[in-house]
Fold these 2 entries.
Entry 1:
Amino acid sequence: MKYTPHSQGEIEAMLQTIGLESLDQLFDDIPREILDQCRLPDRPGMTEPRLRAHLRELAGENLSADDAPCFLGGGCSDAFIPAAVGELLAREEFYTAYTPYQPELSQGILQSIFEYQTYICRLTGLDIANASLYDGGSALASACAIAAEGTKKKTILLPETVHPDYAQIVKTYASSGIMNVQTVPAKNGATDPDALTAALSDQVAAVVIPQPNYFGCLEPAAEMIAAVRQNSAALVIMQVDPVSLALLKSPGEYGADIAVGDAQPLGSPMSYGGPHVGFMAVTQKLMRKIPGRLIGETTDADGNRAFVLTLQAREQHIRREKANSNICSNEALNALAASIYLTVVGPVGFRQAAERSHRLALYAREQFELRGMPLLYNRPFFREFVVGSDTPEEWIEATIDLWHKRYTGEDEALNAKKITFPDTTGGIPVEGGVLLAFTEKRTPEEIDQLVDVMDDAREAIQ
Amino acid sequence: MKLLFEKDVPGSNAFRFPMDDLPPATENIPHDQLRSTPVDLPELSEVEAVRHFVELSHRAFGVDDGTYALGSCTMKYSPKVNQWAAQLPGFADIHPNCVQPGADHLMCELQEMLADLTGMDAFTLQPAAGAHGELTGMMIIHAYLRDQGQNDRKVVLIPDSAHGTNPASAVMAGFTVRVVKSGPDGLVDLDDLAAKCGPDVAGLMLTNPNTLGLFEKNILEISRLVHDCGGLLYYDGANLNAIVGVARPGDMGFDVVHVNLHKTFSTPHGGGGPGAGPVGVKEFLRPYLPYPTIRRGEDGQIVFDADEEKSIGKVKSFFGNFGVCLKAYAYIKSVGYEGLKNAAQLAVLNANYLRCRLSEYFDIPFNTLCKHEFVASNLRQAPSGVRTLDIAKRLIDFKYHPPTIYFPMIVHEAMMFEPTETESKSRLDALAEAMKQIAREAETTPELVQGAPHNTVIGRPDETKAARNPVLSYKKPAQ
Ligand SMILES: Cc1ncc(COP(=O)(O)O)c(C=O)c1O
């Protein structure tokens, strides 16, 4: 297949206009020895029917959330996406456009991002939100970096309970020397406030509070923030699950300075972990520190409402090495997905998504406990928790095995792609147990099945 | 147009999740951890929500709407089969904590293809965009130099024509920037480069072809100068579309590259993202790649490695923007390596053709053989007071997305055109005619150009007002 529209005659006419005889001559400015070295293996193209068959085959080897109920969370959520979201995102004007550098031609994109910014402000309870960052982890790293830059201090206090990928991304960003990461130990599944107080000093730039944390537990956020305010001038960064904000106290209500997270559960498919969308919101005071694009409202000469990219003096294309971040392309289409999602589900639906998840998780805990499988941590949670086990890997493997024997044993196709480990039905192994997630897509019946299987699997490995 | 927050009709949104299958609620979350007031979301019926976003889409302009010669962004047509593929449940609805053999195979093969095409030895797909790739690449260089005991190499050389992300990324990775001048031919000034190479140099970041669309033909000499002083070479792959299948950065002496899948490899730009910026390295830098790395083992099985000792760590959760990688994979598979070369040839043909056509009416500061893009300026229109901004805005009236303007900074009043290979001759002729007409208007009726655009939903917005009194979210007017 090819996607170039030229006829041979047109190519010749164009070459003539340029004054060249062949396409090869277009590369006469490249040294011969470089051209000669470019000998590529033979890789012919494919017709669309063949390509589609091939892609379908690859897709068929994966285990999707359509094949089996997904109890995996840990930063990627099997969330329900209303049909209208996909339909609207498929409009070419949205997905084939680029950054709205020309406002007169891009009011639709600019307004959609302005609306997204408004949504993020309302969810987080903070004043200013940007147009998006790459993902939750890089958003957290960027928040830590602007805190270090803004406070002229280096230490970032990072609880042990932060998502391990997020923690690693922060550490990677810190390797440049702009910040030092100090881990704050946890006690019973959440940050130990005494340990936090002990770690605080006037060298601390920021304290991170994951809410809920990687193990699903709610952190003692109010206590932690009080400790920060009492013992330092550090900024408070809350890393939150956007869906939880339908129920939980917002970062703004807690008095946090920065909120970050990943808005994937709001309308973006899991897609094997990306593209997702990092969000960041800050207090008015930090407006000029926030990285990435910002859309602002203004007017044209006739007084019409207009939207533009604004406060660009923070950004790389103006400030170059003095910019507060290097970000250029972001995750605009996923941000739009979040906006469409929130609009379509509305205030009642959004609250229900959170409530349904939460109540399913409560139900699951009850069922696990009735069967003698207690949670590892006895703490409030939103929709994820850890069921205790000394051998989580083995338990998960046995669970998957049993699950497939029981529920997909008849299904040849599904059995063929039965995956050994890990699997959607099994949960994520963590120290001391199995991390399970319950989104609004799950049902009590699926939870009954899971609990049954995990109970039997536990016996099988004993 | 109203904001959706101004279309709030309480009671009109009927979307519901099923709740009747749930057991009664129990207490778990302490009262003081709950939100005190519900999130304030607007209520729109489904039809009104849909119409709102459709109306927004009517106020946007994509590649499918027409020629989008936005320089440096490679706004080529995105094949629809890519979109089809991304929606398959076996790609869209797969969780990253579950082994997914089809997806792993795809990532592995994409890495191998990118290695073929760039002449590098190993790739990571983790970075989410070009700038993220730059940061990753510069961190790799940072970690390597530290391992070599070369902590004093703190300076990254960057040409004055470079994209803003280059210096910003170098600084984020812990370096300082030393700017290298461009010579009168628009290429890196070799004398200036030689003078700036020294024992404190960590490396050079270079875009080739550069942001003027010119191939840095002294690249082998540049590479020798930088390597001789102990530095490494970083390739900003934003402009790879000009040479893909024809020449490879790995054969020019580059040690680290990133490629923008959303440029060269046709994945759509999404109104600003998502993209993907895979990073490739030469063998000696492989251990520093972000983990997990994915490769094919001896028996053909996919192997995930986590060399946590030398690796820079992680720059993104999971494996990167898989959904974008898969579209690039589909594109490469679809056109094949010959098709990529054909695309590069026609991208360069289109740029040179348009350059020749426009040079009759516009100043082209470096009017020689270019690669996939070229830079023009308003020099010939300036006497009548017409600026590059005016020309760009007037082009909108002719239903074109304007070129990139005021970049690169080394050209006064720059207009950077990159037509890409998916524009036909007749489209380019029509664009040239529109530009010719604008050139004529600039002489006869400059106010017409200066007042443009005339046919858009808004006139030129007041950007100063936006920055001076920032309104960054909607607030309900006080009752
Ligand atoms: C020359 C050049 N380098 C780097 C970038 C940054 O790439 P991205 O927007 O994918 O981060 C761009 C983007 O326009 C570019 O044109």
Entry 2:
Amino acid sequence: MSSIEKDGVNRLVVLPFAKSVEISFKSIRVRFFRSLITTITLVLAVSFLSFVNVGTDIADGLLATGDINLRQALIRAGYDLEAQDTAVGSSPKQRWIIILSLLVCAVGIINAQLMAVTERFREIGTMKCLGALDRFVLRLFVLEAAMQGLAGASIGAVAGGFFSLVNALLSFGTVAVAALSWSDVALSVLYATLVGILLSLAGVLYPAIVAAKMQPVEAMRVEQ
Amino acid sequence: MSNTHNIVRVSDVTKKFQLGKVAVEALKGINLEIAAGNYISIMGPSGSGKSTLFNMIGGLDKPTSGKVFIDEVDIAQLDAYELAWLRCRKIGYIFQTFNLIQVMTALENVTLPMTFAGMGNDAAVKKGIQLLDLVGLGDRFRHKPSELSGGQQQRVAVARALANDPSIILADEPTGNLDLSTGEEIIALLKELSRERSVTVISATHDFKMLNVSDQVVWIRDGRVDKIEDRDELSISLGKIGTKE
Ligand SMILES: Nc1ncnc2c1ncn2[C@@H]1O[C@H](COP(=O)(O)OP(=O)(O)OP(=O)(O)O)[C@@H](O)[C@H]1O
Ligand SMILES: [Mg+2]
């Protein structure tokens, strides 16, 4: 029988990255509704961000046509345009609303993730008894959040952009789409997606660190 | 394997829990030497400190004072990596509440420790199926714990405990949540494993069915070792228990 000390070289426990991804993915699938609740807040916040930013892109496109009627239509639609303005830009009020919505979303995600992690204390304790390191647990939670973030944020960003386009078509007609710079739209959607993923990761970090640091006994004592 | 080899040694271990202003002394100085390959039962009334001792031996909790040696290595000296390695490779745990990972299938539960130990996926699946076969669940490997009975879940837990061929199996009331006959089956399974694979089985219990199969019984009372009896001495106290109940 080999003693612990003699085996120095083989004393590593591992969790290959592909296996972590597999476990996290299955974990999301099995807890679909729990994951959905965490993700929906994100979808809403990200789609709002995307809606506003794509709206700005559309307005910029309209403005760039130089058509005075379109300029009037934009002002009637609520954009504050000075005579010399060539881009719409977002108003401070709009920026505040976006920041607030993202903050509310972050708090919602932290809340949902804290509950999700608490529900899984026993699972975490068990994994640690089987030899999991703190960082395995951390990695599993971060991966789950990243996948949820990617899915939720891309759905939200695309949906927000889409509604923004529909909205513009209804208010300004087809010229809104004709005058539009599609690369700007793609950038706005991408930006909203990235913000969403970051939010999701930021939201899971604190709960995941708490979970990862737990001693196996503490984690398993929790009644469930 | 010589009988003089001590796989577990517990030296003057105490454990205090601080509950607000009150300190509960769950272990009041335990000394214990466990020879490799034996089947040990830790017996004692509820609250006597069995689970606390179980956690100390398994490296799941730290003693307030005293030392626990596994294979003559003081586990308090191990860093986080070595401790994880110990839990992964040296010790297999079995709990009263089974503690299977609910979102994983029986097979995934059994292969997880092998993954941690660095085994490749195919090898792990193959060995996992073998182990599930061994505990009589060869055909249920795709099932989730919630689709299995208590006894079946505990069998999966036994298979999982064997995943990395540990030298010690620690079981905390493995039959506590099972009915009489299912409990007996699990005990028989553990006994068979200890005999055939010369695994050291240490089981905390207040199930007297365990006594028949134990090589040694450690009686714990109020955080202290009351007495240690070898197999041949046992029949006497068994007789006493028989008349008491
Ligand atoms: N985390 C804890 N905090 C405070 N006190 C604890 C804790 N764990 C155990 N104790 C106390 O330590 C003593 C021993 O508990 P332990 O769980 O080891 O008993 P046991 O012998 O396993 O009992 P049972 O047979 O009921 O499982 C008890 O008085 C218990 O209240
Ligand atoms: Mg107990």
